[in-house]
């Protein structure tokens, strides 16, 4: 089963849900996220529903859950999505796509969180290959830019130095009751910038924002899913793709014309070589080589549970070692690296 971002959340939940036929999904390929991501599961969806209702009806007076449901069912799609967009800009967090516990229905899909199900051993293991790309978080950096641009904060030196990281935490669902985490992250990602006397803009901090949001929202959950699977399943493989080709998906489905930064090796850029779309982006000679390699790896894994290719210099090692070790799978021109354990790289140098 091949999955991507929000669909991946469904896939990783399927592996922990025993109602799924055991003959299905003999191998799994995870792309960018898992059910361990904060945005993947909502333990209290009523809170978000009420917030969305207040925006939709422009009121702070709450009503019953059944009346809210009637409102949601009867508004037009345009009205509903406009409210989602407005709510998102007021309270920037990834919430609308979260899965919830199922309380009704004859056959229940999720009756408790994936974390609890795994701890109880109610978990299916299958050979798994997961991957991320170098600048995965640029997708969210563009969203943060939009939020800051609306509020005239993209060149606000005081906000960027003193309040921005707190907002990034809010966006990522991190509860920060003290400044310890903020100071730690600022020291890790913005130390040299914040030491400068010049005024700082969003363009200066964009690589650090990409690192923070990419690691918290996509890479760490992906790696956690892989490490969890590796505990019970030997055939677990992880890769990070740093190859930057001619084309990018930065901006696909998103308005990024005004962004004063590019997306680097952007979120889902590896899919350009596996599922090239739109077809108006023909691959050049070098990109065709990386397409051949990735196609070999994905298809061989789908067939026999082990990624192989005649283009590999070495055998792809399974995820098992601590501390972090990476190994180049092919020569420098491809820039694809296996991850055997630990954190997935520092993305700040595009």
Concise summary:
42% of the residues lie in helices and 7% in strands.
SSE succession: HEHHHHEHHHHHHEHHEE
* Annotated CATH architecture of the domain at 6-41 and 98-134 and 220-341: 3-Layer(aba) Sandwich
CATH topology of the domain at 6-41 and 98-134 and 220-341: Rossmann fold
- Category from helices, strands and their pairing: alpha/beta
- How do the strands line up in the largest sheet? 1-2-3-5-4
Shape: globular
CATH homologous superfamily grouping of the domain at 6-41 and 98-134 and 220-341: Alpha/Beta hydrolase fold, catalytic domain
- Rounded to the nearest angstrom, the radius of gyration is 21 Å
Mean pLDDT over the full residue set:
79
Q: Sheet with the most strands?
A: 5 strands, mixed
- Strand portion: 5-15%
- The low-confidence runs, each spanning 5 or more residues with pLDDT under 50, are 2-11, 322-326, 329-334, 341-350
Query: How many strands appear in the DSSP assignment?
Result: 5
What distance separates the N and C termini?
Answer: 31 Å
Helix content: 40-55%
CATH class of the domain at 6-41 and 98-134 and 220-341: Alpha Beta
- Helical stretch count? 13
Report on this model:
The protein has 350 residues and is α/β, with parallel strands linked by helices. Helices cover 42% and strands 7% of the residues. Strands 1-2-3-5-4 form a five-stranded mixed β-sheet, sandwiched between helices. Helix 2 (45-56) crosses helix 4 (77-90).
């Amino acid at each position: 089963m091949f999955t991507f971002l929000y669909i991946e959340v469904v896939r990783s939940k399927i592996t922990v849900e025993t109602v799924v036929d055991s003959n299905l999904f003999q191998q799994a390929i995870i792309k960018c996220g898992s059910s361990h991501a904060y945005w993947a599961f909502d333990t209290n969806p009523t809170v978000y529903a009420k917030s969305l209702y207040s925006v939709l009806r422009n009121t702070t007076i709450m009503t019953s859950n059944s009346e809210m449901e009637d409102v949601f069912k009867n508004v037009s799609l345009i009205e509903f999505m406009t409210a989602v967009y407005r709510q998102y800009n007021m309270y920037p967090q990834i919430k609308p796509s979260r899965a919830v516990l199922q309380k009704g229905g004859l056959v229940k899909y999720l009756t408790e969180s994936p974390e609890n199900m795994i701890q109880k051993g109610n978990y299916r293991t299958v050979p798994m290959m997961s991957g991320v790309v170098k600048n995965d978080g640029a997708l969210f950096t563009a969203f943060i830019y939009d939020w800051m641009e609306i509020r005239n904060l993209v060149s606000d030196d005081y906000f960027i130095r003193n309040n921005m990281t707190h907002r990034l935490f809010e966006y990522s669902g991190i509860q920060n009751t003290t400044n310890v985490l903020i100071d730690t992250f600022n020291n890790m990602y913005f130390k040299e910038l914040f030491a400068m006397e010049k005024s700082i803009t969003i363009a200066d901090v964009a690589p650090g924002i990409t690192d923070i949001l990419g690691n918290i929202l996509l890479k760490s959950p992906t790696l956690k899913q892989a490490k969890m699977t590796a505990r019970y399943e030997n055939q677990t493989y992880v890769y990070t793709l740093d190859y930057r080709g001619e084309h990018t998906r930065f901006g696909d489905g998103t308005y990024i014309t005004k962004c004063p930064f590019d997306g680097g090796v952007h979120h889902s850029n590896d899919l350009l070589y596996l599922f090239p779309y739109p077809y108006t982006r023909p691959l050049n000679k070098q990109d065709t080589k990386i397409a051949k390699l990735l196609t070999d790896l994905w298809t061989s894994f789908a067939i026999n549970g082990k990624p192989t290719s005649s283009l590999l210099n070495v055998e792809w090692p399974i995820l098992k070692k601590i501390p972090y070790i990476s190994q180049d799978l092919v020569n420098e021109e491809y820039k694809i690296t296996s991850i055997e354990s630990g954190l997935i790289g520092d993305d700040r140098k595009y």
